[in-house]
Amino acid sequence: MNDRVTIRLAKEAMKFSAGHFTIFSATERERVHGHNFVVEVDLQARMQGNGMCFDYGIYKAKVIALCRELNEWMLLPMRSPHLRIETEGACVFACFNGERIPFLQRDVKLLDVANVTLEELAAWFLQRLGEDREALREHAIEDIEVRVSSGPGQSAGRRASFVE
C-alpha cells in the first residue's frame, strides 16, 4: 500500500493584492496594474502511522503569513536584467528603457526575482516554504508544489522535491 498522501492547502485567506508590471524585453513592459492573487499549495508527505501525515495547520499559517508579506505592495523585481532600481529620498524609481517610474518607498516591496510574474511568485513561495529543511524532514514532506493565480483560469505552478 502506498503511504504517500498529497495535502492540498487552498484556504480563503491564502491570497494577496499587489501591483506590478511584467517585463517582456529590454524595451517592452506592461503598464502598472494590480491583481488579487490566490495561492494554493500541495504538500506530498508520508503517513506517520497515526492516521495522518502532519499538522498541516502549520503550513496553512506559513502560507497565510507569506501572503501577508506581499499584500498591498507594489512589487518590483531586483534581478531583472532590464530594470534598474534607484532610491532617492522617499522615492524608489524603477528605471526601464529610458524611463524613471516613480513610487513612494513606503509602497514598494523589492523581491529577489527576475520578473514579477506568476511563475516567479510561485518560485518565491516555494523557496520560502522549503527553507526549514528540518521541519520538512520531521513532517516527512517529500515534495511541495505551489500554484499562484491572478484570476480564474490563469495560474502558474512550481514544484520541488525535498527527499534527501
Strand content: 35-45%
Helices and strands, in order, run as: EEEHEEEEEHHEE
Main pleated-sheet profile = 7 strands, mixed
Total number of helices: 3
Q: Can you name the CATH architecture?
A: 2-Layer Sandwich
What's the SSE blueprint?
Layout: E1 4-9, E2 15-20, E3 33-46, H1 57-70, E4 73-77, E5 84-88, E6 91-96, E7 99-104, E8 108-111, H2 118-129, H3 133-138, E9 141-151, E10 154-161
Parallel strand pairs: 2-4, 4-8
Antiparallel strand pairs: 1-3, 2-3, 3-9, 5-6, 6-7, 9-10
In words, what does this structure look like?
By secondary structure, this protein is of the alpha+beta class. It has one domain (4-161): 2-Layer Sandwich (Tetrahydropterin Synthase, Chain A), CATH 3.30.479.10. The chain is built from 3 helices and 10 strands. Strands 1, 2, 3, 4, 8, 9 and 10 form a 7-stranded mixed beta sheet that branches. A 3-stranded antiparallel beta sheet has the order 5-6-7, with no helix packed on it. Strand 5 (84-88) and strand 6 (91-96) form a beta hairpin. The longest helix has 14 residues, at 57-70. It starts with a strand and ends with a strand. The model has no long low-confidence stretch (mean pLDDT 95).
Outline:
With 164 residues, the chain is of the alpha+beta class. The protein has a single domain, classed as 6-pyruvoyl tetrahydropterin synthase/QueD (Tetrahydropterin Synthase, Chain A). The protein contains three helices and ten strands.
Quick tags:
seven-stranded mixed sheet; alpha+beta; Tetrahydropterin Synthase, Chain A; 164 residues; 3 helices
